[in-house]
Design brief:
With 647 residues, the protein is of the alpha/beta class. It folds into three domains: 285 residues, Rossmann fold (3-Layer(aba) Sandwich), CATH 3.40.50; 150 residues, Isoleucyl-tRNA Synthetase, Domain 1 (Orthogonal Bundle), CATH 1.10.730.10; 90 residues, Beta Barrel (OB fold (Dihydrolipoamide Acetyltransferase, E2P)), CATH 2.40.50. Helix content is 40%, strand content 20%. The chain has a six-stranded parallel sheet, sandwiched between helices. Strands 19-18-17-20-23 form a five-stranded antiparallel sheet. Strand 12, helix 10 and strand 13 form a beta-alpha-beta unit. Helix 12 packs across helix 13 and helix 14 packs parallel to helix 17. 41% of the residues are buried. The structure holds 5'-O-[(L-methionyl)-sulphamoyl]adenosine (MSP). The site of 5'-O-[(L-methionyl)-sulphamoyl]adenosine has 21 residues, from strand 1, helix 1, helix 7 and strand 12.
């Protein structure tokens, strides 16, 4: 069986987890779940980095011993992950006895090889980075990440001969273009290695200055430098050097980090491995920063988003989807509540949610919730199967290559394609015409496509995708993307589905920063002359200001039902991004069945004064064209966010 081994950075225990840590760990979790669904055996490693200056200092400030302090914060990380649907194989702590012992073994081996020497060094030490920064790395004398002036430290220490492996590392990176990905980070490391001689790495701290660390096995007056200790977790966790099984995991190791710790992972770590005689990892996957108003989200800058609060407010599945969909892997992304609500409402509430809601509701309405034997096929069914196969192939390939945003975009081709298929097949018309066999096929196709999308979404939103699969009569625990489940097929006859889905209720959009400018005061609107519909004549001209007084909005029809005692009227609910959908009474009943309207984007005159029609309130007007061909609704040519203004 193929194996897959994924790691996150082990996080410092000087601060509570925030959305940045959660992002990397959710990505690792999604990859672990993805590979498991592809039939592979998976090891997913995360944990905490607990030694070093930074932790010792934070513990002192908190009036605790470093271990007490580390226990408390490490506990926050390990308790948070299950709340976010994250299930690591091991949560390693650098204070774990097996890790400490293996770090000493590694140090001794590198020392015995002659790759460690004693010497004196002075340099600019950034506590935030826990490393010496080179002159070139400083920006205006400051650490570019932490915006503080590093401390100049000169002392006698042990050094790792990192420079010895510079050529070998460069050759490896050049021979394996995917070793560090995406490409911009590989290029950054190549130019660093080509730009001059690599310095050796100071790997000890004298106990006179710091005792909170792993003692050097060959000199008890020193503790190990925190990065030399921390990086080794990737090996020690899987049983290096004693466990004979470690090599089969190590052979498929992939690391996941943000760009802040590119150098330790792309330079320190591989040169350490070369010295130890251990093969290099398979991939280093590097992502950008989550920004808040153009600044990296970080505790020291005081602009963090608390992951649990966000998951509780917005739902875990929505949060995981947003994080994976919104950040182009490798680039920075901005976090705003508005972007979150916009993405959630457009992709989940509208596209996926509506697809699930309406296809389940129609199956219940037309077939009592159990799919009948299929009937006639149609060219549209073959086209749908082709679309599904392409979308899923692209999704699987891109997801496996850590291109999550593009992968989800590819999968949405299927989700949107299914909505279009339903619109084009018009099940409501088939029902009206009594074409029950064809109606059964259409519903089975739509639901089969939805089941395929839900299976692909299991790694991204484990909770919601599992619920959706159960609503479709499938067992989420039995799904595998290695076998027939990844192939599009109509849902089989006899499958019983849920009556409704309701997984992604719309989020209320947060208040926009600036209110739209008020329309200039207008002259009295000219009254359009009433003319018979058959021969419309141009209406009297109006000033632009008159036109601008109309507040036209795009909305989504969320419900439509006949108005009792009025044959032509429907009571329609239109979501225009307000707290509650707008009630609108519309003369559509002679032209559409309610299911045909639900999920459709329409244009609403939103500032029409409310009035009561046949006892029902109507607040707005849906724009439509009545022509010889029947009634056509106006709508945007591609989906836009409900509430967007028509201008
Ligand atoms: N302890 C070291 C890593 C040792 S690994 C052998 C460390 N810890 S950290 O707590 O500072 O975590 C850094 C990592 O947290 C980043 O590489 C990234 O995975 C995640 N992130 C922290 N802030 C982030 C953002 N604002 N945006 C994206 N990821 C963020 O470095």
């Amino acid at each position: 069986m193929n194996r897959f081994f994924i790691t996150t950075p082990i996080y410092y225990v000087n601060a509570k987890p925030h959305l940045g840590h959660a992002y990397t760990t959710i990505v690792a979790d999604a990859l672990a779940r993805f590979h498991a669904l592809m039939g592979e055996e998976v090891y997913f490693l995360t944990g905490t980095d607990e030694h070093g200056d930074k932790i010792a200092e934070a513990a002192q400030k908190a009036g605790q011993t470093p271990k007490e302090y580390a226990d408390a914060i490490s506990g926050l990380f390990s308790a948070l992950w299950p709340e976010l649907g994250i299930t690591p194989t091991r949560f390693i702590r650098t204070t774990d006895p097996d890790h400490r012992k293996a770090v000493q073994t590694a140090l001794q081996r590198v020392y015995d090889k002659g790759d460690i020497y004693f010497g004196e060094y002075g340099g600019h030490y950034c506590k935030g980075c826990e490393r010496f920064l080179t002159e070139k790395e400083l920006v205006d004398g400051l650490c570019p990440d932490h915006k503080v002036k590093p401390e100049y430290i000169a002392e006698k220490n042990y050094f790792f001969r990192m420079s010895k492996y510079q050529g070998q590392l460069l050759a490896h990176i050049k021979a394996n273009p995917d070793f560090i990905r995406p490409r911009q980070y590989r290029n950054e490391v190549v130019s660093l290695l080509e730009s001059g001689a690599l310095e050796d790495l100071c790997i000890s701290r004298p106990k006179s200055r710091l005792t909170w660390g792993i003692e050097l096995p060959f000199d008890t007056n020193f503790v190990t430098y925190v990065w030399f200790d921390a990086l080794l977790n990737y090996l020690t966790a899987i049983g290096w050097p004693d466990d004979p099984d470690y090599a089969s995991w190590w052979g498929v190791a992939e690391h996941l980090v943000a760009k802040d710790i590119l150098k330790p992972h792309a330079v320190f770590w591989p040169t350490m491995l070369l010295s130890l005689g251990v093969p290099l990892y398979r991939h280093l996957n590097v992502h950008g920063y989550w920004l808040v108003r153009d600044t990296k989200m970080s505790k020291s800058l005081g602009n963090v988003v608390e992951p649990l609060a966000m998951a509780q407010k917005a739902g875990l599945s929505g949060m995981r989807y947003f994080l994976l969909r919104e950040m182009v892997f490798g680039a920075d992304a901005s976090f705003t509540e508005e972007a979150f609500a916009g993405r959630f409402n457009a992709d989940l509430a509208n596209d996926l949610g509506n697809l699930a809601n309406r296809s389940l509701a129609m199956t219940t309405k037309y077939f009592g919730g159990t799919l009948p034997e299929g009937g006639e096929d149609d060219a549209a069914d073959a086209a749908l199967a082709t679309l599904a196969a392409e979308a899923v192939d692209n999704f699987l390939q891109l997801f496996g290559a850590a291109q999550f945003s593009r992968a989800l975009e590819a999968l949405w081709e299927l989700v949107r394609g299914l909505n279009k298929y339903i619109d084009a097949m018009a099940p409501w018309t088939l029902a009206k015409e009594g074409r029950t066999a064809r109606l059964g096929t259409v519903m089975a196709q739509a639901l089969g496509g939805l089941r395929l999308a839900a299976a692909c979404l299991l790694p991204v939103m484990p909770e919601a995708a599992a619920t959706l699969l159960r609503q479709l009569g499938a067992d989420p625990d039995a799904v595998s993307l290695a076998g027939p489940d990844r192939v599009f097929a109509p849902l089989p006859a006899g499958t019983a589905v849920a009556a409704t889905s309701n997984l992604f209720p719309r989020l209320e959009a947060p208040a926009k920063e600036a209110a739209p400018a008020a329309a200039p005061k207008a002259k009295k609107a000219a009254k359009a002359e009433k003319k018979p519909a058959a021969k419309p004549e141009p209406a009297a001209e109006v000033d632009f200001e008159d036109f601008a007084r109309l507040d036209l909005r795009v909305g989504v029809v969320v419900a439509a039902a006949p108005v009792p005692g009025a044959d032509r009227l429907y009571a329609v609910s239109v979501d225009i991004g307000e707290a509650a959908p707008r009630p609108v009474v519309a003369g559509l009943a002679e032209h559409f069945v309610p299911d045909e309207l639900v999920g459709r984007q329409v244009v609403l005159v939103a500032n029409l004064k409310p009035r009561t029609l046949r006892g029902a309130t109507s607040h707005g007007m849906i724009l439509a064209v009545k022509s010889a061909a029947g009634m056509a609704l106006l709508g945007p040519s591609k989906p836009v966010a409900p509430g967007d203004r028509v201008s």
